[in-house]
């Protein structure tokens, strides 16, 4: 089951599609003999990935929040081949439909950040040059720090911010830029994490003393648990490590559930620490929460 009730919210895991990325880039300075024990690579050194969104239905307000939107379909064939994009096990719209939702029921889209694998699915081509949002009525939430970074990117990060993804968001009348951590409702708020990019926001839900954290690119897969195992894609890897050193001890102590956006096989993990490194102590699906 990819659905559960968590406090005052019903949560649905929304599979938006699978793709592959270079394993070396995904594990930064970690040697392949170490990372490939956890996630084996294909003949081109790529590892399987997915973009798993989270749909949050509020029992109190009736609002429906979608966290991130996956890669989408605005690519050419060359891109789909390089990244081995595969929608056979679901796409954003198909998975929303299987969960019982249409795009116009989504009241809020919260982007952790605007790299193409997180926001591409929110828009489609209208004609050859113009793209438009598939959630025309929804509030779109991005941190101001990240938005400023996305519209004035550094040269290394600019390839991750695609014009066809950002333009319809920039034109959207209900784009809301938050100044930092934001409280959406009771027991539902964001925390800000830097390092992967500037101003990434991670949604957090609480149910009594249980906490579910949408991990985004702080912890992309179950294999990225040791502090130095940060991605080659991170803009500021030392900052990523500092953020992990700040958050992981608390995550172990309080038993945080990390919802994994990019892990092809595991929806949720809890961290453990064996005296040397952090590891995925528990792996479960949303339905097992
Ligand atoms: Zn990213």
What is the CATH third-level topology name? Metallo-beta-lactamase, Chain A
Poorly predicted regions:
none
Please indicate the count of domains.
1
Characterize the overall form.
Answer: globular
**Helix proportion of residues, in percent?**
10-25%
- Profile the largest sheet: 7 strands, mixed
Give the helices and strands, then pairings.
Elements: E1 3-6, E2 9-22, H1 23-26, H2 32-35, E3 46-58, E4 64-67, H3 77-82, H4 92-98, E5 108-110, H5 116-119, E6 123-125, E7 131-133, E8 139-143, H6 144-151, H7 163-171, E9 175-178, E10 183-185, E11 188-193, E12 200-207, E13 210-214, H8 237-254, E14 257-259, E15 268-273, E16 278-284
Parallel strand pairs: 4-5, 5-8, 8-9, 13-14
Antiparallel strand pairs: 1-2, 2-3, 3-4, 6-7, 10-11, 11-12, 12-13, 14-15, 15-16
This protein binds zinc ion.
The site of zinc ion has 5 residues, from loops.
